[in-house]
Design brief:
The chain has 275 residues and is of the alpha+beta class. 44% of the residues lie in helices and 12% in strands.
Length: 275
């Protein structure tokens, strides 16, 4: 079944101009006094269409990445921000995010980084992305080692004409700039590392596409996202492979340790008292 067949639906989910109007207002008035009386608008114009869209994207992912199918209410990200550190950073409290977003994590990686599929809608942009964004240190090392052994495969994925016709690479941003030298434990004396040098310097790997926010108000929204998710699915699978291997090894070690019999405690004999 092709991605196009998987996403057919009698009523494709998309947003209305009222949703963009709400997001523009939230950007200007990021406070509870503005949001609370307009929460019914948020529920109707943003949350409900978002859950419907995620449900239909799940059907599309069934054809290309079934491991990333999750319940819509768990895939949709919260609109509420963590404001605990705003005061210490001399920032005004902004209790809400200015975009509505969804993250399709892989099964078993819901609470870790890993690679997955993502999109968000803000007042100015529809962002569609796939890959591994700022992985945890252990995952980062596992991915780099995997790239060294399979650098030709990753290079082919990142330079695919089909992908680049719809998306562009993201290797870095201000939060995670690439390294300027090889990471510790990697030496150019290894021919594979030398060949993969430019691919292991980044701290994240993926592709993304930025479309005008108005694209989210068209019936073609589902196809726009699902087509890009399907193109990026092999890249997401590549990045998750070493993480899954590491997880499996850790589980095997834990099972072995749990089955190892405990060494009985030796009891010391009390010395015999003599008169």
């Amino acid at each position: 079944m092709s991605p196009t067949q998987a996403i057919r639906s009698p009523a494709p989910a998309h947003f209305t101009p009222e949703a963009l109007k709400f997001l523009r207002g939230l950007t200007r008035h990021n406070d509870r006094a503005w949001f609370d009386p307009r929460k019914p608008i948020f529920e109707r114009e943003l949350r409900a269409p978002m859950l419907a869209l995620i449900e239909q994207l799940n059907h599309a992912l069934a054809a290309v990445a079934p491991e990333h199918i999750r319940p819509p209410h768990k895939t949709m990200m919260r609109i509420y921000r963590d404001t605990r550190f705003d005061a210490s950073r001399n920032q005004p409290a902004r209790p809400y995010k200015t975009q509505i977003a969804a993250w399709f994590a892989r099964t078993g990686m819901e609470k870790t980084s890993g690679a997955g599929f993502y999109f968000h809608l803000s007042a100015t942009e529809l962002l569609i992305a796939a890959g591994c964004y700022m992985p945890a240190p252990g995952q980062l090392l596992a991915i780099r080692r995997h790239i060294v052994q399979h650098h030709a495969e990753l290079r082919a994925l990142l330079t695919s004409k089909k992908i680049l016709a719809k998306m562009s690479r993201f290797d870095s941003d201000r939060a995670a700039p690439p390294l300027t030298r090889l990471p510790r434990g990697f030496s150019v004396s290894d021919p594979n590392i030398l060949a993969a040098q430019d691919l292991i310097l980044p701290r994240q790997w993926g592709v993304r596409a930025s479309l005008p926010a108005e694209a989210a108000t068209r019936p073609t929204l589902l196809k726009e996202i699902a087509t890009r998710f399907a193109l990026a699915a092999p890249l997401v699978a590549f990045l998750n492979t070493p993480i899954l291997c590491d997880t499996a090894k850790s589980q095997q070690i834990e099972e072995i340790m749990s089955q190892k019999p405990n060494k009985p405690h030796e009891t010391r004999k009390k010395p015999v008292e003599t008169l």
